[in-house]
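FIELD: query
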Amino acid sequence: MSKRQTMTENIPIKSKKMKTPEDSYDEKSDYYENEETDSDDDIAIVGVGCKFPGADNIEEFWKVLYNGENHVNEIPIDRWNVEAFHSEDLDSSGKTYAKHAGLVKNFTQWDNKCFGINDTEAKEIDPQQRYVLECVHMALEDGGITRKSIKGSDTGVFIGNFQ
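FIELD: result
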């Protein structure tokens, strides 16, 4: 599978402008319009960067989904001592009743120099913030975008995250 090919290549994608709810719906017309637009409201998703349990990038994530893999496992001792924080009592303060989790690999490893962050500061950065930096970098690379090409441009990065 090449860098730009994914397991979704056979899924048809419509590239059409959706009518707004204010537009009247005509049963004879399609819900989508086929017109090109050039608006300040236009957006483009040009690259994807992600890390999930069992997947360090989008291609691996598609494989996990395709294969129906489950990467929720018993929490390893090198992550934290589950027994010290576990309780069967759901109302127990400061404890968890979960002994399993879907965890991302290599959470302590990252190339802080790539982001211009010195070693001292790098030790203090939250792993979630490191993942954001890495995934944004990954998305830019996936889209073929360099730092130089977007410097000073009206470029935004939008992040989807949940816990």
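FIELD: remark
The mean pLDDT is 78.
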